[in-house]
Amino acid sequence: MNKKIKVYFLGSGKIAVPVLNRLVWSDRIELLGIGTQLDRPAGRNKKLHPTPVGEFAHASGLQADKIPTVNAEEFLDYLRWLAPDLIVVVSFGQILKQPLLELPKISCVNVHASLLPRYRGASPIAAAIVNHDTSTGVCFIEMDRGLDTGRVYCSFEHLLSGSERADWLEEALGRLAADKIVDVLEGIVQEENDPVTQDATLATITKKIHKGDGIINWNLPAADIESRIRGYYPWPGAAFTLRAHNRKITVRVTSASVHALMSGKPGEVLQANKKGWIIACGANALELLTVVPQDKKEMRGIDFLNGCHLDKGIIVGME
Predict the structure, then answer these.
(1) Would the pLDDT of 1 be above 60?
(2) Taking a C-beta distance cutoff of 8 angstroms, is the pair 219, 118 a contact?
(3) Minimal CA–CA distance to 308: which of 287, 290, 286, 293?
(4) What pLDDT does 318 receive?
(5) How confident is the model at residue 244, as a pLDDT?
(6) In angstroms, what is the C-alpha Rg of the chain?
(7) What are the DSSP calls for 154-201, one per residue?
(8) Under CATH, what is the fold of the domain 211-307?
(9) Statement: residue 319 has pLDDT above 60
(10) Between these two residues, 256 and 245, which has the higher pLDDT value?
(11) Using an 8 Å Cβ cutoff, are 116 and 95 in contact?
């Protein structure tokens, strides 16, 4: 097509960055503007940090609109003045109300990191890993007032090996969405991508992940704990407590492997020596390959044991 597509972009999370980058450099897109969430405090000093999209925009010499409330009339007037053909939304973090959904000439298009209607909601990437899925993907949907309930323009599958961490998978799905975004938007504008209504009877919902979700429950099967270690990496992480040096310390597990032929009481230390650190689970056992002890850097599980002797048979957990 000869005429460029006028796009306003709303995004905040890391998965949005490669999609935005592709739009910035496409000669088929006229990027009217970039909107993201406000800078937020992070770290021990609670210093304000931009979103990944805000950080990318700054590093690229682009202006990002940092939007307190996306549905405010002042912002809607600004968008009306820009007159976008499409508003593209990727991991933005605010709910778009009906006046905004109806504002662009053609559509508000959301990029969602699952194969809808599976895993609507806030944490589809973690859910795919935690639930041992063999594939996931990205969907481009026509936004409506529901939670990821809009009609699907198109979807693209991404196969899973069973070893992915959440941060790796987010990067992979971001690249997949970026590879497809311009062609998908052209198809929408040219009415080549007819949106298909989701089958609501097949819908599953994911919720926002909280810090407590990372507490390791040793009563679960080892395979389920291992998938949570990967699905909740890097945040909130998967952790447990143990007694060491006359105090309780928190240990975050960053990688582990399942031992199908070992078993014991949930949380029982089956092995803790230079050959490995293995803990029994509700079914089978888990070897802790790498860990982050409280106030320490990441290290091998066996290296942690060099400075923290653990007796075989003790029970660890979140006390």
Answers:
(1) no
(2) no
(3) 293
(4) 53
(5) 74
(6) 23
(7) EEEEEE--S---HHHHHHHHHHHHHHHHHHHHHHHHTT-S--B---GG
(8) Methionyl-tRNA Fmet Formyltransferase; Chain A, domain 2 (3.10.25)
(9) no
(10) 256
(11) no
Question: What's CA 139's distance to the chain center, in Å?
Answer: 15
- For residue 302 the two structure tokens come to 């066996």
User: Do residues 111 and 181 lie in contact, with contact meaning Cβ atoms separated by under 8 Å?
Assistant: yes
pLDDT band at 215 (very low <50, low <70, confident <90, very high): very high
pLDDT tens digits along 46-96: 788 999 999 999 999 999 999 999 999 999 999 999 999 999 999 999 999
Nearest to 9 by CA among 34, 45, 46: 34
Q: Specify burial of residue 287 (Cβ count, 10 A radius: 0-12, 13-18, 19+).
A: buried
Domain range 5-206, its CATH number among 3.40.50.170, 3.40.1790.10, 3.30.70.20, 3.40.50.2300 = 3.40.50.170
Q: Is 253 exposed, middle or buried (0-12, 13-18, 19+ CB in 10 A)?
A: buried
Q: What amino acid is encoded at 175 in this protein?
A: R
User: Quick one: average pLDDT of 310-315?
Assistant: 92
The pair of three-digit structure tokens given for residue 274, joined into one six-digit string: 């230079």
